[in-house]
Amino acid sequence: MKNYIAGQWLPSSTGRTFNNINPADISDVIGSFPLSNVDDVARAVAAASDAFKAWRLLPAPKRGDILRVAGDIFTRRKEELAAIMTREMGKTLAETKGDIQEAIDTAYYAATETRRLFGHTAPSEMNNKMNMSFRMPIGVCGIITAWNFPIAVPSWKILPALACGNTVVFKPSDDSPHSANIFAEILEEAGLPPGVFNVVHGNGEAGAALVESENVRLIGFTGSTSTGTAIAARCGALNKRVSLEMGGKNAQIVMPDADMELALHGVLWGAFGTTGQRCTATSRLILHQDIHDSFVAELIMQAKQLVLGNGLTHSGAQVGPVINQRQLDKILSYIEIGKSEATCVLGGKRDIGGDNANGFFMEPTIFTNVERTDRIFQEEIFGPVLSVIKATSFEHALELANDSAYGLSSSIYTRDVNAAFTAIRDIEAGITYINAPTIGAEAHMPFGGIKGTGNGHREGGWTAFDIFTEWKSVYVDFSGKLQRAQIDNYTD
Ligand code: UN1
Fold this sequence. Notes:
Elements: E1 3-5, E2 8-10, E3 17-22, E4 25-34, H1 38-55, H2 60-76, H3 78-89, H4 93-113, E5 121-122, E6 129-137, E7 140-144, H5 152-163, E8 167-171, H6 177-190, E9 197-199, H7 204-212, E10 216-222, H8 225-238, E11 241-245, E12 250-254, H9 260-272, E13 282-288, H10 292-304, H11 325-341, E14 343-346, E15 365-368, H12 375-378, E16 385-391, H13 394-402, E17 406-407, E18 409-413, H14 417-426, E19 431-434, E20 450-451, H15 464-467, E21 469-477
Parallel strand pairs: 7-8, 7-10, 8-9, 10-11, 12-13, 12-18, 13-16, 15-16, 18-19
Antiparallel strand pairs: 1-2, 3-4, 5-6, 6-21, 14-15, 17-20
Helix pairs in contact: 1-7, 2-4, 2-6, 3-4, 3-6, 4-5, 9-10
The structure holds 2-aminohexanedioic acid.
């Protein structure tokens, strides 16, 4: 399988490749992909720079027409693409279909927004002069994303970027390259001109080349806080716009007045859906002391029943594998740390039963007696590991939720309207759910976080269009004489 540059499928310039394997069955090799270097990136950036000249001039609603067709093709290829995605990154078919649905929604939403790229008008200080502002595309955007949402998260960046008249070089994760190639196929079939969208596969070498490339004006990144922070530092030095969506350590609070069944289903889905590999996953559960013991007992019972398995061959599978050996090792090392800090009440081991022996399966794991200073309470693990902590009051629960270096998603289960609104106001996070789990953002709402999670941008929703445009202010003077601006007109 190849890179997609200027509408052509090309190998890497060195001929080097890497293998893409199925994390549910490591004997299943999906294919080899180009291990690209700086020359491959330069070629893709040159194609994108060239294509920008015409693409930015195509009327925005015409660009939208192409995105709408892309939404139709994603819909048509949903089943096939879901199977490809499950095979390369492991989450269940129901979840990979959801991943594609998010791209479909984003495509239609972005298509519609091409008719609404509103600017502002404002009164002028002078007679016979009009003031207005327009959104301008930025140029070539470098998009670097993680493997856990191989289609949805790239779509949040790529589709609004294209809608605004930018061109794109996409460096997908080397754990989910096949889905990225289908993304390219779909945009090509939808009628996107060659060079407007390009895919360069590889590892950090290709990503770094994209960040360093002089003609790349913007980097959109989803991934770890350490990589994102390093990218931001380089982009700062190079005067590039950068939007970051990084780690999370998301908390769900359960108060004694909550609907316990609902709260239980919420945390099961939030913590163990996508095998805990979402940046919005629930990794901290804050239980009010009055319901702590009964809630934990019920949670253990229900989590124990979750079925681990290969989503392609096991129709009952609810929890897939983790993505790779490196991630499995990281999770297992955090479990050792957890055992020295707290009490492991469920799981804690790799699952090697039956067919799962060939994959990176990890038992849903729960720790209780966790303290706020524990590493398993503070650090992102990115796996099916939940840290449960006891709160003595509502205020204490909020304080625990906010005791984090991250600030992406949050949740509270309560029937008390005053508690709910206080939480909305006081939880330090980009997203707060009331009586719903920490995961499951909708495509047309701003998505992102504060503190160690992001750098102030919000993708998804109308705010994505702020990331991918520059403002142009325009003054039209139809007085026929030199009118000095107010600041140059005062004599005293
Ligand atoms: C991510 O894990 O990078 O909120 C994004 C959700 C998803 C997005 C997760 N729609 O669950």
